[in-house]
Amino acid sequence: MPVDDDVGMSAWIYFIHPPRDDFAATMTQAEQEVWARHWERLQREFAKGSIILVGPTLGHVNTGICVYEADDEDAARAFMDADPTIAEGFARGELRPFQVSLLRGG
């Protein structure tokens, strides 16, 4: 279980595993559409303050990561599962508790 911070929220990370290597360079039209909705959702949630950071790994394996705060594991899983890429079967999500130990500018 992750360590709670001073406001009672826990940090979580989810990995977005795309369906193949070189995914960013080989997306179909349907994949581009769902990833656009994924990005819009992340921007909205970031503006609300629950997301700490997001981004993809680069190179031929394009795993995405999202570090965010949630009240508990159920809330964290619901947040991950609502990601359009995962909810619609375009990617596989992997959830883990996360502890931010160092954060530049934080």
Concise summary:
This protein is of the alpha+beta class and 106 residues long.
Tell the overall outline: globular
Q: Return the CATH architecture.
A: 2-Layer Sandwich
If helices are DSSP runs of H or I spanning 4 or more residues, what is the number of helices?
Answer: 4
Give a short account of the largest sheet. 4 strands, antiparallel
Annotation, overall tally of beta strands: 4
| Count of discrete structural domains | 1
Strand order of the largest sheet: 2-3-1-4
Beta fraction: 25-35%
If you average the pLDDT, what whole number results?
92
What report would you give on this structure?
The chain has helices at 23-26, 29-48, 73-81, 84-87, and strands at residues 10-17, 51-56, 64-70, 92-97. By secondary structure, it is of the alpha+beta class. Strands 2-3-1-4 form a 4-stranded antiparallel beta sheet. The protein is globular.
Main attributes?
Alpha-Beta Plaits; 4 strands; disordered N terminus
SSE blueprint and pairings:
Elements (H helix, E strand, L loop, with lengths): L9 E8 L5 H4 L2 H20 L2 E6 L7 E7 L2 H9 L2 H4 L4 E6 L9
Antiparallel strand pairs: 1-3, 1-4, 2-3
